[in-house]
Specification:
There is one protein chain. With 793 residues, this protein is mainly α. The chain folds into 2 domains: 259 residues, no CATH class; 401 residues, no CATH class. The strands form 3 sheets. Strands 3-4-5 form a 3-stranded antiparallel beta sheet. A two-stranded antiparallel sheet has the order 1-2. Strands 6-7 form a two-stranded antiparallel sheet. Strand 1 and strand 2 form a beta hairpin. It is globular, with a radius of gyration of 35 Å.
Length: 793
C-alpha cells in the first residue's frame, strides 16, 4: 500500500481537515517533475522516466562500505537549498526561505515550500490547541480524583497498616492518627481484603522506589501508651511519602449523578432533591463507574492525539524525501531538523500525560493489576472470523433454497386458487409478515454498515459502540439470514401440514408454528448467557427501553435513531397486536370456520390505531425532553412534525376502518401536510441537502459519495416513497393479482427501504458535522461539581 492511502486510512476522520494535505503537496511536486522533464537537455530527455536519479547516482563518488557511522562532511553555504526561520512574534510561525528560486523552475519549488509551510503551521497550531485542551481536562480530572479519594475514605474508613509499624487511621477531618494499639507482625484484614495488600492505593500517594518497594521507615513497636496529637504528627512523618488525604474537599463539592431510571428521574423532578453527598456505597460505586469511563475516554483521546502527531511527522518526512528524489537536492535534512525541534516533534507533554493516566488508572481502578488495566484502556480490535463468513454463505444459500421450495409448493398445490387462500392471507400471512419486516430491516441496516465503512463514516463513535463490541455488516447479515431460514422453514412446514391430507387434522399444531417462532426469537433476544452477541443484544434492549420510557431518560443519538426506525415498522407493531389477539383472546383453532374474532372486536380496532401511533409518540416525547434540556427551537418544529404525522395516521386508520367520507377528506389533507413537513425535514435538516449557496449546487459543501447524482436519486426516491400513504386514502384494497394484505405488506416494505436509504445520508450528515467541529470523542459527565464552578455558571 502506498503511503498516501495508508496515511488516509489511519486518519482520525473527524480531524481529517487538520492533517497535512499530502495529496495536494504531491501534486505540486508533480508539477516540479513535469517542468524538469520538459526543460531537460537532449541527453537527459532521452532517459526513460524514473531513471534520472538512478543514472546520476551511477557517477557519484563511492562513499565506502564502512562509512555508515561516519559524520557527513559539512557543506558550504553555496550548497544550501533552504533556510528555516521561526517568527515568534506571530505565534511561532515557521517559514522556509528557498534559496534557489532564481533557477529555472524555481517558482514551482517556491510554491511547494509555501504550501508546505502553511500545512506545517496548521498541524502545529492544531496540535498545540488539542494539547492545551487535554491538559485542562487533566487538571479537571485531578480535582475529580481528589473528591473521589476523599469519598472513598469517608465511605470505607480504611486503615493503613504497615508491617512492624503502628496502625494509621484516616481521621474524619482528613488528618492521620496513629492507633494506640500495638500492631502484630501480620497485617490484619481491612474491609474484607486479604492480608498483606494495601487497603486502597487511592487513599494516599505512597512513593515507590525504582525497585518497586514501598519507601517507608519501620517504627519499632512499643508498649501501648496514650499519645497526643503532636506525637501522632511526629510519628506520621516517619513514613516517607505518606500524604494523608484531606476530607475537607467534600465540603465544597456536590454530586452530579444523572438520574438513571424513570423512578429516579421522577423523584428528581417532583421532590427537587439536592445533589448533596450522602456518603453511601451505592453513591461511591456510581462515582467510580463514571470516573472509570471518563479515564477510558480521556486515554483514548490522548492516544489518537499521539497518533495524529506521529502520522504528520511521518508525512512531512515522506514528502521531503520525495522532494529530494525529484529535484536531486538535499533539503530534507534541514527541514526535518526544524520539524524535530518544533512543538510537533519535541513536545513530551503528551507522552508523560499518557504514562501518568495509565499509572493512575491501574492504581485506582484495577487494583494495581497492570494487564487488566491496560486491557480496559486499550481494548483489542475486533478480528474478522472466517466461520462467520462461512455460516453467512451457508445460511444465505439455505434461504434461497427455502424460498424456491415455498414457490414450488405454492405452484404445485395451486394455493393461489385454493378456497382457503383468503383465510390464510387474513390470518397466517400477518403472523409471518412480522418476521419478513424484521429481516428486511436488518438487511437494510447491514447494507448501511457496509457503505458507512466504505465511505469511512465513523458509525461506531456516533452510535457509542464500545471498541470491538459493535456488529459489522457480516454479523448483521448472518443474523438476518438465520432469522430468514427459521421463518421460511416455518412457512414451508405450515403450508405442507395444511395441504397434506394426512396432517390436515392437526389444526392446533399448524396454528402454533408462528407462535413458536416468536418464542424462539424472544428467548434468544433476552438470553442472559454470553452467546449470540450478548453485548449487542443488551445494547438494543436498553435503547428500546429508553424509547418506551421517553421522556424519562436522557435522549442520545442511538435512542432517537432507533425510535426513527420504529416509525417505519408500524405494520410490524400491528402484527404483534394480532399475535396477542389471535393467540390470547381469539380462538386460533376456529380459523377454518371463517371466524375472525379479532377484526370484529372494538378493543382490537382501538388498539389498531394506538399501536400505529406509539412510535411517533415516542419521538414526540423525545423532542419534548430535548427541548427542556437544550432549549432549541428546532426541537419544537421537530415535535410539531411528529404531531402532524400522528394526526394523519389516526385519520388514515379511521378511513381504513370505513368511518366515512369526511374522514377520507381529513385524512388526505392531514397526510399531505405531514408528508410535506416530513419530506422537507428529511432532505434539508436530516440530510443537510438543498443548500443554495453550496459548492455543490443544491447539495452541500462536503459530500462523501463522489457521484453527485446519487443524492438527487435519493431525494426523488424519498419523495416518491413518502407518498405510499395514498394507497390507503385512495381506497386501493385489493388487486386482481394481489390480496389486500399482500399489498399492505409491499407498502410497508417500501417504507423500510426508504428508511434504509434515509439512514445512510442521515449518518453521513452527522459524521460531517462532527468533522466540521473536530468532534471525535463523546463527552462523559463528571461526577462532582465544585462550589466555585457553580458560581461561575
Amino acid at each position: 500500500m502506498k503511503f498516501g492511502k495508508e496515511f488516509t486510512s489511519q486518519m482520525v476522520q473527524e480531524w481529517q481537515g487538520a492533517y497535512m494535505d499530502y495529496n495536494s503537496l504531491k501534486i505540486l511536486l508533480k508539477n516540479v517533475l513535469q517542468f524538469r522533464q520538459r526543460n531537460a537537455t537532449t541527453t537527459v530527455a532521452a532517459t526513460p522516466r524514473g531513471s534520472l536519479a538512478r543514472r546520476v547516482s551511477l557517477y557519484r563518488a563511492f562513499s565506502g562500505l564502512t562509512s555508515r557511522y561516519r559524520a557527513s562532511p559539512r557543506k558550504d553555504n553555496e550548497d544550501e537549498v533552504i533556510l528555516m526561520q521561526e517568527e515568534r512574534s506571530e505565534g511561532n510561525l515557521y517559514k522556509t526561505m528557498f534559496l534557489r528560486s532564481s533557477e529555472d523552475g524555481g517558482e514551482y519549488e517556491l510554491v511547494f515550500f509555501r504550501r508546505l509551510d502553511d500545512e506545517f503551521n496548521k498541524v502545529v497550531k492544531f496540535c498545540k490547541e488539542k494539547v492545551e485542551e487535554v491538559m485542562e481536562e487533566a487538571e479537571e480530572l485531578d480535582k475529580q480524583m481528589d473528591a473521589l479519594i476523599a469519598l472513598r475514605v469517608k465511605v470505607e474508613r480504611p486503615v493503613l497498616g504497615l508491617k512492624g509499624a503502628q496502625k494509621i487511621h484516616i481521621a474524619t477531618h482528613g488528618s492521620a492518627s496513629i492507633s494506640p494499639e500495638s500492631i502484630s507482625p501480620q497485617t490484619p484484614p481491612i474491609n474484607g481484603r486479604k492480608p498483606g495488600k494495601a487497603p486502597m492505593d487511592a487513599i494516599q500517594e505512597v512513593e515507590m522506589s525504582s525497585e518497586g518497594t514501598l519507601q517507608a521507615e519501620k517504627t519499632p513497636t512499643t508498649e501501648p501508651k496514650s499519645i497526643d496529637r503532636e506525637t501522632a504528627d511526629k510519628e506520621k512523618t516517619n513514613i516517607k511519602g505518606f500524604r494523608p488525604v484531606s476530607l475537607q474537599v467534600l465540603d465544597h463539592v456536590k454530586i452530579n449523578l444523572a438520574p438513571e431510571t424513570p423512578v429516579s428521574t421522577l423523584k428528581h423532578v417532583l421532590m427537587r432533591s439536592t445533589s448533596d453527598l450522602s456518603f453511601s456505597k451505592v453513591e461511591l460505586r456510581k462515582v467510580e463507574e463514571q470516573m472509570t469511563q471518563a479515564f477510558i475516554e480521556f486515554h483514548g483521546r490522548l492516544r489518537l492525539l499521539k497518533s495524529f502527531c506521529f502520522l504528520n511527522l511521518l508525512a512531512f518526512s515522506k514528502i521531503m524525501k520525495k522532494y529530494d528524489k525529484i529535484t536531486s537536492r538535499n533539503a530534507s535534512k534541514a527541514y526535518l531538523e526544524m520539524v524535530d525541534k518544533s512543538y510537533l516533534g519535541s513536545s513530551e507533554e503528551l507522552n508523560k500525560l499518557i504514562e501518568r493516566v495509565e499509572a493512575t488508572f491501574i492504581r485506582h481502578f484495577s487494583n494495581g493489576n497492570r494487564s487488566k488495566g491496560m486491557n480496559i484502556l486499550r481494548p483489542k480490535a475486533k478480528k474478522e472470523k472466517h466461520r462467520i463468513t462461512f455460516f453467512l454463505g451457508f445460511l444465505s444459500g439455505c434461504s434461497i433454497a427455502l424460498l424456491v421450495a415455498i414457490a414450488m409448493v405454492i405452484h404445485a398445490k395451486d394455493v393461489l386458487k385454493s378456497p382457503e387462500r383468503g383465510q390464510y392471507m387474513e390470518t397466517m400471512f400477518p403472523l409471518y409478515s412480522l418476521f419478513g419486516f424484521t429481516v428486511l430491516h436488518m438487511l437494510m441496516y447491514g447494507g448501511n454498515i457496509y457503505f458507512w465503512k466504505c465511505y469511512r463514516i465513523n458509525y461506531p463513535f456516533i452510535f457509542g459502540f464500545k471498541q470491538g463490541r459493535g456488529l459489522g455488516y457480516r454479523e448483521i447479515f448472518l443474523l438476518s439470514f438465520g432469522l430468514a431460514v427459521l421463518t421460511m422453514a416455518g412457512v414451508l412446514s405450515n403450508l405442507d401440514m395444511q395441504m397434506d391430507p394426512r396432517t390436515k387434522s392437526f389444526r392446533a399444531a399448524r396454528e402454533l408454528v408462528p407462535l413458536g417462532l416468536v418464542t424462539v426469537v424472544l428467548l434468544i433476544t433476552f438470553c442472559p448467557f454470553n452467546i449470540i452477541y450478548r453485548s449487542s443484544r443488551f445494547f438494543l434492549i436498553t435503547c428500546v427501553l429508553h424509547c418506551l420510557c421517553a421522556p424519562l431518560y436522557k435522549v442520545v443519538l442511538p435512542d432517537f435513531f432507533l425510535a426513527d426506525q420504529l416509525t417505519s415498522q408500524v405494520q410490524a407493531f400491528r402484527s404483534l397486536e394480532f399475535y396477542i389477539c389471535y393467540y390470547g383472546w381469539g380462538d386460533f383453532k376456529k380459523r377454518e370456520n371463517g371466524e375472525n374474532i379479532c377484526r370484529a372486536n372494538d378493543v382490537y380496532k382501538i388498539f389498531y390505531i394506538i399501536v400505529a401511533v406509539v412510535p411517533y409518540w415516542m419521538r414526540l416525547l423525545q423532542c419534548v425532553r430535548r427541548l427542556l434540556e437544550e432549549k432549541g427551537c428546532m426541537h419544537v418544529l421537530n415535535g410539531l412534525k411528529y404531531l402532524s404525522i400522528i394526526v394523519a395516521v389516526v385519520l388514515r386508520t379511521g378511513d381504513d376502518l370505513k368511518w366515512g367520507m369526511l374522514w377520507k377528506i381529513m385524512a388526505a389533507v392531514s397526510s399531505a401536510v405531514a408528508t410535506i413537513a416530513a419530506t422537507y425535514w428529511d432532505i434539508v435538516i436530516d440530510w443537510g441537502l438543498l443548500q443554495r449557496n453550496s459548492r455543490n449546487p443544491w447539495l452541500r459543501d462536503k459530500l462523501l459519495v463522489p457521484n453527485k447524482y446519487v443524492y438527487f436519486v435519493a431525494i426523488v426516491v424519498n419523495v416518491i416513497l413518502r407518498l405510499a400513504w395514498m394507497q390507503t386514502v385512495l381506497g386501493i384494497r385489493d388487486t386482481p393479482l394481489l390480496h389486500g394484505k399482500a399489498l399492505v405488506a409491499i407498502v410497508a416494505s417500501l417504507e423500510i427501504i426508504r428508511r434504509g436509504i434515509w439512514n445512510f445520508f442521515r449518518l453521513e450528515n452527522e459524521h460531517l458535522n462532527n468533522v466540521g467541529k473536530y468532534r471525535a470523542f463523546k463527552s462523559v459527565p463528571l461526577p462532582f461539581n465544585y462550589d466555585d464552578e457553580d458560581k461561575d455558571v
